[in-house]
Amino acid sequence: MKALFQTKGTSSTPVSSQTSISQSTAKDSKETYHAWGVRWSGNAGANQTALSPALQSCYTQNVNEQNNNQAKQQQNQQNINSQIQTKKGERAGEVIKLDSKNREKNRLQEDVKTNHDKIDDIKSGDGKNIMAKVQFGIGAIITVLLAVYLFVFYSSASFSAFFGNDDISGAGDAILDSHCYAEALANGLGQLLFILLMPVIFLGLGFLIHQFGESENGFGKYVKILSLYIVTFIFDSLLAFEISQKVYEYTLLTEEQYTVSMAFNSPNFWVVIFAGFVAYVIWGLVFDATLQHFDSMNAHTKEIKVLEGKIKIANQKIDEIDTEISKIQQKINSLDTDIATLNTQLQSRTLIDTNELKKALSEFFSGWIAYMNLAAKPQSEKDMASQTYNIFISRI
Length: 396
Known about the structure:
The protein is mainly alpha-helical. The chain is built from 13 helices and no strands.
């Protein structure tokens, strides 16, 4: 063996001429595939052109060994039967998955159809919203007119209470003072902004009452709403007290101190309260009802959007299921092909274990490469040999 793997540096004689191994390429019955590969590689000088015929001989040798081995044939038959049963079991599992996905798809398609029918029913019933539209229109007009009234009232009343002259003969002069804006501007921009923005406070309180009624739940919302009404009433009462006091002092020309009890007995006090606070409460109720009619008028639009969203989600899921069904069907088709191939192999007279065949070829080639390593063959030749082997194996 030492003489077989001597390098070119130790002798000018070709390596193949120094081997004591038999020149025959036939495999000895006691020889391993690895040793056979070493011997064949040495006989051929690891020539690249000799590798492909050598691999073919190895292939034929192993096939003949398997054909002549009855025990191996029976084992191969059992292995193929086992593979067929395994493939059938996998196929049955994939069929169950396919049925489940088809049922899920059918259910989603029914949901889509049902939601489409609901949308059609909603659209066909648009005439039912005519009354809601009429109520919304009337409510909107009343709300705007009351808002204008409250703006005029609180602007005039706040000017009369805080900045106006003392020559007020009645509540009417105080709550409908047409000169309040000009007089406030004459007194400075601050007074004008004050009386212009004062109504915004009350309109804002009315909006908050509506918001608490919509967003809050339980007993707490009623506490908040009642608190806002109390705050508004107190503020209106202060305005009414100031105005009725000025009316009292101007009309009676007395220096007697004006008291709360006197205010409660004064018609001017209650005129201001009813003209302001009661109108404010009415505005808040009409405003809330108007928004409710608006919601009713557009309820079908919101419902349609919700249904369309459900349809979109269902269609996306259907697309995902279709993709999964396609993959499952491909797997079933592949298993059917494998089962048919295995049945064909089972019906043949001889059965070949490809795993054992590839193992024998691998051992043979490892012996071939072992000789090339010991013979110090360049890496390029070993790469070419590996390429030839890989191509040969891929065809099995």
